[in-house]
Amino acid sequence: MDSFQYEDRNSSSHDAWLAPPAQPVEKPKTSPHLGYIFAGLSFAPFIGIIFGGAGIIIAGIRKSVGAVILSIFGIIINFIFIAFIMNSLFTNFISTANETFSTTIPDQITRTDIELIQKEIIKHKNDNGELPELLSDLEQSKDTPSLSLVDGWQRDFMYIPNDDGTFRLSSNGPDGIALTNDDIFSSQSTVPDKGVAPDYRP
């Protein structure tokens, strides 16, 4: 009985000597500063909001108050930046729209109406043998039931009949001042010191 126990103890010692020592299980290594890394990336324009959200989650898990605060601050800065960009774009859009409305559209209206008036002036001359003295003398035909005697800027068209049968028909343009570069003349109107205005496409 003693001999058996002795052999058994020797056998256990021998097996223990041959078995490799147990290795401790290593936990995956992660950077202790990972939360701060994402918090720093939260300041990147636009995409920083995503990194900031990830930074808050990671910092919350690691209980890093500093990284959480930094991530939140980065997100706030991003929202302010986006708001500034959107405000700039909206301001530019409004400015462009106002310019289009105040210049381009009235210009097109003026060029269309001035040709309609010219058509009625020529018709009046053919029917009566002379030019009308005033634009108000024009009789609106069926082709021009809504003839307007004001331009796109709501100012009266300039009309001067000449003794030789020609006439001057113009708009003072956006600036409202006569004989400046932005004046608009009808296609058959005389232009001061320039003779007949060249044709143009209204």
Quickly name the level 1 CATH class of one domain.
Alpha Beta
SSE string, helices as H and strands as E: HHHHEEEEE
SS elements, strand count:
5
Low-confidence stretches: 4-8, 198-202
- How would you describe the shape? rod-shaped
What would you call the structural class?
mainly alpha
What can be said about the biggest beta sheet? Answer: 3 strands, antiparallel
- What is the H level of CATH, i.e. the homologous superfamily of one domain? Glycoprotein, Type 4 Pilin
CATH fold type of one domain: Glycoprotein, Type 4 Pilin
CA radius of gyration: 44 Å
Considering DSSP H and I runs of 4 or more, what fraction of the residues is helical? Answer: 40-55%
Average pLDDT metric: 81
User: What distance separates the N and C termini?
Assistant: 124 Å
What's the CATH architecture of one domain?
Answer: 2-Layer Sandwich
> What is the number of helical segments per DSSP (H or I, 4+ residues)?
4
